[in-house]
Amino acid sequence: MPRLSLYRPEKGKDYTFLDKTITEMFTVGGTDVFVHKYLGPKNPAEGEATAGTPTYDAVKETNIQDLVFLENRDRKYAPDVYTMRGIYNVADIDFDLSQFGLFLSQDILFLTVPINFCVKALGRRIIPGDVIELPHLKDDHAYNNFDFALKRFYVVEDVNRASEGFSPTWYPHLFRLKLKQIYDTQEYKDILDQKASEGSDTTLRDLMSTYNKEIEINNNVVKQAEADAGKSGYETSHLYTLQVDERGVTELVTTDTNELDASTQNELADRIHQTPEREGYEGYLIGDGIAPNGEAFGSGIGFPTTSIKGDYFLRTDLFPNRLFRYDGQRWVKMEDNVRTNLSNTDDKKTQKGQFINNSNTSQIGGETVKERQSLSQALKPKADN
Fold this sequence. Notes:
Elements: H1 13-29, E1 31-48, E2 54-58, E3 75-86, E4 95-98, E5 101-104, E6 108-114, H2 115-122, E7 131-133, E8 153-161, E9 174-181, H3 189-192, H4 204-208, H5 211-228, H6 262-272, E10 297-300, E11 312-315, E12 322-326, E13 331-336, H7 351-356, E14 361-364, E15 367-370, H8 374-378
Parallel strand pairs: 10-11
Antiparallel strand pairs: 1-2, 1-3, 1-7, 4-5, 6-9, 7-8, 8-9, 11-12, 12-13, 14-15
């Protein structure tokens, strides 16, 4: 007589009976789960679509788009939505105040689904990247100006066999999915571009995305920062600079009125009109391109033909703009205008705005390229005809 054993080397009728019973329990006590099937990274096709936009095909879902960061940013999802049944433990979402800051606890769901039910519905096992929609979590009373219920989407981050899904025959029947809520990012563009309802022009992104509000908040923060700290470095234009001699000693313009004559008056007039040869203050990023003591100065792309000793001139053809002083024989550099606004804009008159953030374009070989790519594009070897 053979020994009694619940385990069998093959999946027999006992396994089939238990699997149907477990699946029925999910049908009775579970909730609907809508699955947006992940097809793989988008693969730009060589041809053009009829509307003038590139057509996309999805490569195999196990492929990795970016091998450096191990990311699949351009994801393709199936247009059809698959329905399954699942069970998870509902828990309150609270903020956890720990020694490292304020964290949102219980924002990750662990959903249990039948394995065979999942495979029959999707045509494959569920994998990380699939997006789960829980219809029973739709918010019908959201504080918005739309007549639509806000849906709740989660992305599958991990898939494992649930410990409670093993039957007495030692075969697994359940998958345990780790889910995390999705946001308006590049990965889920295919899903968020879908219509909120049939015949509506409103997309899911219009209802769920916080992008516009976050950009508005960020712009207001930048404006306030520019008001509080308009430019980099230190402000010295309101300070007065005294004239010093070649030894660095301050030259005081004084004379005795009893000895005042024509020659003394001429010498005194020359010294009074003498301007400082350098700024009287040194520090990090204090050059503002403004002459000391509020002296008048000219500006342009070339020095003037007639000048007198002590004149200042700002060269605007140099980046950053450079302030010069005429010493009677030549133009001597005073300072560079290195003080610039701290926001990331392209209108800076320094290398930070005109070179690092260069967004201009050029035409090379009939192809429009960005100027920061022009050199590499021009040096690219041409294919033999």
